[in-house]
Design brief:
By secondary structure, the protein is of the alpha/beta class. It has helices at about 15-25, 40-50, 65-75, 110-120, 125-135, and strands spanning about 5-10, 30-35, 50-55, 80-85, 100-105. It has one domain (about 5-130): 3-Layer(aba) Sandwich (Rossmann fold). It is built from five helices and five strands. Strand 3, helix 3 (about 65-75) and strand 4 (about 80-85) form a beta-alpha-beta unit.
Length: about 150
């Protein structure tokens, strides 16, 4: 078994998807915890201390975007990279606060690659700067000279 690559918390209401993600991440050396919705994710994050969290969008009790908002608002969790894994997301247009998006159905090796990269970079690394620039580009205002 490979050396530990980090910890990943997987939030998805489908046990089949949970197992698919778990098996592939564990084969890559990650320690994985699975939960069934955003509320369980918020409860588990303090106990498990993940390096990356994957979230489905459509889940009971608290959906993925609700969980993203609460994770980003909490100073203890705002640094954790978040990956949306959903049929309802377009990877190039990840919502604000999300570090990456993977569309279902997905190729497991691609998801593992995204998680591995984010675990290595962390939220404060170059990826966060790239995401911020992509989400909110700075454009200079009109330049006028007044006499």
């Amino acid at each position: 078994m490979p050396a530990a690559s980090g910890r990943v918390l997987v939030a998805d209401d489908s046990q089949v998807i949970q197992q698919l993600i778990r098996v592939n991440l564990e084969l890559d050396g990650f320690e994985v915890m699975t939960v069934s919705d955003g509320a369980e994710c918020l409860e588990a994050v303090a106990r498990f201390l993940p390096d990356v969290i994957t979230l489905d969008l459509d889940m009971p009790r608290l959906d993925g975007l609700g969980a993203v908002g609460r994770l980003r608002a909490d100073p203890h969790t705002r640094h954790i990279p978040l990956v949306l894994v959903s049929a309802s997301v377009v990877p190039r247009h990840a919502p604000v606060g999300v570090d990456a998006a993977v569309a279902k159905p997905f190729v497991p090796a691609e998801l593992v690659s995204v998680v591995r990269r984010l675990a290595a970079e962390g939220r404060g690394g170059p990826r966060a700067v790239q995401l911020a620039k992509r989400v909110a580009p700075c454009r200079p205002g009109p330049r006028t000279l007044t006499p």
